[in-house]
């Protein structure tokens, strides 16, 4: 009986090994299908962002196993930010609850994603992580790349959550299994959005200097648990400089308001180029750090600035205005507005053409389905994924109508190619028209009231600049 049990146990072990090997072969190979999907997604990603800036690609090692460790603020858009800005076909570890349906499991496997189980997925499922981590280690041994988020959850804020031990555990287990000769590198990544769910935002992706895991050999031999905690802390400390980090829990919104309010002026006073996306990022990063120092060293002065900020934003809210409108109020001269309105009229036919073929797939998820999304961090993800499906469908409908009207294959094909670009241009023009309308609305307000709000705004900015100089 004991012999039979041992025999069946060996068979089970062999089956598990075969399954792991087959799975790794699927994940290991460069996939044409994956690359085709990524090319389409990358194009859509470019269309949905105003600007994408990437730094530090030279920090991604060649010919070595890699773990990308990034901050996590914006659901699915974060892995796309990494996958669309480097050439590697990385394996992603994602929360297990998105693998529930058979269709989802098949597709996610195809695009090289594996589940990671948490306590909330049931204690019985935690043991499945052993097999998953084993597959990941096999991939790393084959000098492949893996990506996951050390926070294990998204925050929806410029504020990192506490790091978990998944990355240190995988990294150190992989190196220990190979006598610390694997050459594994952990590349910290900072993902920064100008806004989390608005269309046509700015995205900055920083790839930091890699962490060489073999440096932890002695620490691992002395105390594996302590080594994991040390590596976890180093990953955290390496990601922080690549992001805008607001540490305050109590005054988070006020920090965010001050960043938007004083960021541009602070950038100018520090001799940064105001039109340079990266320099604006560094200026805001420095501004937040100085405000935080002010909070810790001069709490009374900090408190006065917070009160001024709250009063200003409360006042513009009561008047149904925005800070952007007040900031541009002084520049909104009638002569300039006349030129802008003239330009708006001239470009209107171009806008209409782009709007007709893109409006329905653009607004359907935003106006109908998005109301059901409870977690705001998923808004951008929902819009993007819905757009991947809806836009091609409506483009095909549009092309069919064009072909029916013209009978020309050439015109139909050219129209299909131009439709997404026309949509991006139409959105830019829509923003242009909205800005004109906002300026006209501002002009319609009591002039003394606008002056008062402008003075209040300038006073807050002066207080911040003086306190942080």
Ordered list of secondary-structure elements with their pairings:
Layout: H1 2-28, H2 32-48, E1 49-55, E2 66-70, H3 77-83, E3 91-95, H4 102-110, E4 113-116, H5 128-141, E5 145-148, H6 166-177, E6 185-193, E7 201-207, E8 211-212, H7 217-222, H8 224-239, H9 252-269, H10 277-297, H11 299-318, H12 323-329, H13 334-369, H14 379-406, H15 409-444, H16 447-468
Parallel strand pairs: 1-7, 2-5, 2-6, 3-4, 3-5
Antiparallel strand pairs: 6-7, 6-8
Helix pairs in contact: 1-5, 5-6, 6-8, 9-10, 9-16, 10-11, 11-16, 12-15, 12-16, 13-14, 13-15, 14-15
Can you characterise this structure?
With 469 residues, this protein is an alpha/beta fold. It has 3 domains: 212 residues, Glycerol-3-phosphate (1)-acyltransferase (3-Layer(aba) Sandwich), CATH 3.40.1130; 81 residues, no CATH class; 111 residues, no CATH class. It has 16 helices and 8 strands. Strands 1, 2, 3, 4, 5, 6, 7 and 8 form an 8-stranded mixed beta sheet that branches. Strand 3, helix 4 and strand 4 form a beta-alpha-beta unit. Helix 12 packs across helix 15 and helix 14 packs across helix 15. The protein is globular and about 75 Å long. The chain starts with a helix and ends with a helix. 30% of the residues are buried.
* SSE series: HHEEHEHEHEHEEEHHHHHHHHHH
Quote the beta fraction: 5-15%
CATH class of the largest domain: Alpha Beta
Number of helices: 16
Average pLDDT score: 88
Nearest-angstrom radius of gyration? 26 Å
Query: Remind me, CATH topology of the largest domain?
Result: Glycerol-3-phosphate (1)-acyltransferase
Q: Judging by the overall fold, what is the CATH architecture of the largest domain? A: 3-Layer(aba) Sandwich
| Structure class | alpha/beta
């Amino acid at each position: 009986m004991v012999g039979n049990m041992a025999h069946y146990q060996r068979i089970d072990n062999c089956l598990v090994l075969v399954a792991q090997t087959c799975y790794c072969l699927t994940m290991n190979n460069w996939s044409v299908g994956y690359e085709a999907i990524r090319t389409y997604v990358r194009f859509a990603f470019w269309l949905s962002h105003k600007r994408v800036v990437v730094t530090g690609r030279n920090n991604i090692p060649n010919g070595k196993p890699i773990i990308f460790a990034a901050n996590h603020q914006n659901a699915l858009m974060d892995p796309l930010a990494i996958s669309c800005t480097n050439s590697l076909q990385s394996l992603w570890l994602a929360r297990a609850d998105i693998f529930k349906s058979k269709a989802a499991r098949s597709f996610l496997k195809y695009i090289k994603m594996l589940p990671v189980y948490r306590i909330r997925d049931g204690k019985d499922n935690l043991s499945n992580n052993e097999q998953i981590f084993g597959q990941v280690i096999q991939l790393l041994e084959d000098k492949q790349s893996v990506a996951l988020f050390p926070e294990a959850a998204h925050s929806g804020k410029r504020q990192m959550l506490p790091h978990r031990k998944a990355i240190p555990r995988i990294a150190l287990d992989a190196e220990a299994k190979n006598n610390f000769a694997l050459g594994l590198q952990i590349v910290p990544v900072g993902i920064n959005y100008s806004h989390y769910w608005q269309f046509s935002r700015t995205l900055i992706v920083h790839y930091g200097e890699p962490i060489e895991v073999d440096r932890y050999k002695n620490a691992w031999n002395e105390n594996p648990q302590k080594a994991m905690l040390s590596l976890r802390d180093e990953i955290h400390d390496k990601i922080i400089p690549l992001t805008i980090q607001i540490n305050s829990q109590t005054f988070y919104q006020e920090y965010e308001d001050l960043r938007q309010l004083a960021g541009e002026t602070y950038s100018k006073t520090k001799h940064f180029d105001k039109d340079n996306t990266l320099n604006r990022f560094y200026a805001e990063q420095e501004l937040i750090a100085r405000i935080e120092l002010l909070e810790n060293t001069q709490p009374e002065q900090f408190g006065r600035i917070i009160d001024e900020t709250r009063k200003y934003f409360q006042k513009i809210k009561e008047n149904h205005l925005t800070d952007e409108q007040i900031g541009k109020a002084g520049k909104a001269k009638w002569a300039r507005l006349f030129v802008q309105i003239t330009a708006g009229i001239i470009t209107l036919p171009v806008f209409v053409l782009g709007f007709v073929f893109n409006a329905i797939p653009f607004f359907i998820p935003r106006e109908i389905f998005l109301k059901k999304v409870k977690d705001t961090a998923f808004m951008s993800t929902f819009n993007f994924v819905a757009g991947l499906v809806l836009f091609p469908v409506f483009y095909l409908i549009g092309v069919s109508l064009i072909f029916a009207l013209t009978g020309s294959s050439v015109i139909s094909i050219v129209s299909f190619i131009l439709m997404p670009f026309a949509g991006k241009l139409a959105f830019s023009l829509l923003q242009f028209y909205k800005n004109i309308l906002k300026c006209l609305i501002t002009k319609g307000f009591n002039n003394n009231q606008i002056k008062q709000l402008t003075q209040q705004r300038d006073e807050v900015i002066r207080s911040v600049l003086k306190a942080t100089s």
